[in-house]
Amino acid sequence: MARSRRRRGILIGVGVLAVAAIAGGIVIATSSTRGPAPGPAETTPAAEYDRLTALRIDELRGFTDWLEANDSRGFIGEVGWPAEPPESKPWNALAAEWYRVATEEGLWTTAWASGNIWDPGYKLSVYSDTDRDAVVESPFSQSEVVEEFPSTREVRTGVNVAGLEFGTEGDFSTANPGTPAETYFEESADTFDFLASRGIDTVRIPFRWERVQSEPFGELGETGVAELRRALDLSEAAGIEVILDMHNYGFYTTPEGPLQVGSAQLPSAALADAWVRLAAEFGDHPALLAYGLMNEPQGFGGESATAQAELWESVSQEVLSAVRASGDTTLIMVPGYDYSAVARFTTNHPDGWITDPADNFRYEAHQYWDSNVSGSYNEPYDEVLPPE
User: Containing H/E element for 361?
Assistant: First the structure.
């Protein structure tokens, strides 16, 4: 599945995922950045949730129960909902309860999304550029919730800073990776300073594999490496830490077409090689927090959904093992198969599958709350679920 986003006339293909929600008044739990973990909050009792809230919170708790059963930790790499007018904010009410539960369960989160690439009308902007000067400087209604749940010693809360992964429509490939500031976009120091001023200390920065390594098993490219280093340097200066997210959905695009990781044409060792090289390049950067192995792997060939998910499990274990064999112990985010959707995570992966000698990884899932789990949010809140 994919959703389309439009930025300055450019149609951008992005992946999708799964769901969560609430309506009604609540008191939001608050905590000071880097302070003690938040305590219990006064909230709407579960018995009083509307149907959508009950469904999505139940899905989220299904993921956290799975993590507990597998003695593991989790990360919600993308969660997003629409900006709303001041007089009515049902999505924000849902988000506040969702964040309360996620925080209570120890989940790290990065909201989708911020960045100067967005058209001003993009629904899911948490922070954006409204006067088209290529600087993120405007908060939207979602920021009210994100900022009510700042990072603590135990739980990281942040945002995605999108831009380096875009411009992949049309004839994009290793032979045509795009042009900076025309088809994909970097952020300035002002953007990271602005995010820090809002209390954001964690960002997930998506990038494309093809732009950092123009052929499998090849040397890293000068331009792609410079773009990532610049983002890390600017984040460090602003006091922000970075999750580097390879935003490729499980594929690598050549002029002859996309190659599926884990296939004969693109073995797991190719992805492992890319991450070992990236780790050697950035592993000691002060702003680096984690590696995101692969955004939303999906669409694999195989006899069944189970076989496809098992293939991803094998691929991700091989990549993590290679990074550890290189001597790097950085935190690694390991996504679930099938767009990393919260609602399908435990079905696709009945059991945990990662063995990490450094014991420093988190399973990554994504969650959106509209009816088709795409993040398009075409219906009003009260029409997402069909009538009883």
Answer: strand 361-368
**Average pLDDT estimate for 149-173:** 97
Q: How many C-beta atoms lie closer than 10 Å to residue 193's C-beta?
A: 17
Short-list 286, 275, 290, CA closest to 234: 286
CATH of 2-383 among 3.30.365.10, 2.40.10.220, 3.30.200.20, 3.20.20.80: 3.20.20.80
Q: Which two tokens stand for residue 172?
A: 């994009």
- 8 A C-beta contact, residue 260 and residue 266: yes
Decide: 232 and 282 in contact? Cβ < 8 Å. yes
At 120 the pLDDT is: 74
Query: How does pLDDT run across 318-377, given as a tens digit for each residue?
Result: 999 999 999 999 999 999 999 999 999 999 999 999 999 999 999 999 999 999 888 999
Q: What φ, ψ does residue 249 adopt, rounded to 5°? A: 60, 20
Question: What are the tens digits of pLDDT across the range 232-258?
Answer: 999 999 999 999 999 999 999 999 999
| Residue where the block lists tokens 């006091």 | 239
DSSP 46: G
Beta-carbon contacts of 251 under 8 Å, excluding residues fewer than 6 positions away, are: 258, 259, 260, 261, 299
User: Sign of the CA dihedral 54, 50, 337, 310?
Assistant: positive
- Which single residue is written with the structure tokens 């091989």? 318
Evaluate the omega torsion of the peptide bond into residue 29 and state whether it is cis, within 30 degrees of 0: no
Pairing relationship of beta strands 251-254 and 241-246 according to DSSP bridges:
unpaired
The CA dihedral of 108, 316, 349, 336, to the nearest 10 degrees, is 40
pTM to 2 decimal places: 0.89
Determine how many CB atoms are found less than 10 A away from the CB of residue 349: 21
Average pLDDT over residues 135-153: 96
Q: How many Cα atoms are found within 13 Å in the side-chain-facing hemisphere of 4?
A: 5
**Is residue 206 predicted with pLDDT exceeding 70?**
yes
Q: Where are the domains of the chain?
A: 2-383
**Interval 266-300: pLDDT, tens:** 999 999 999 999 999 999 999 999 999 999 999 99
| Site of tokens 């749940």 | 149
Q: Quick check: helix, strand or coil at residue 119?
A: coil
Residue 341 backbone dihedrals phi, psi, to 5 degrees? -65, 130
Structure tokens at 51: 């149907």
**Distance from C-alpha of 92 to C-alpha of 161, rounded to nearest angstrom:** 20
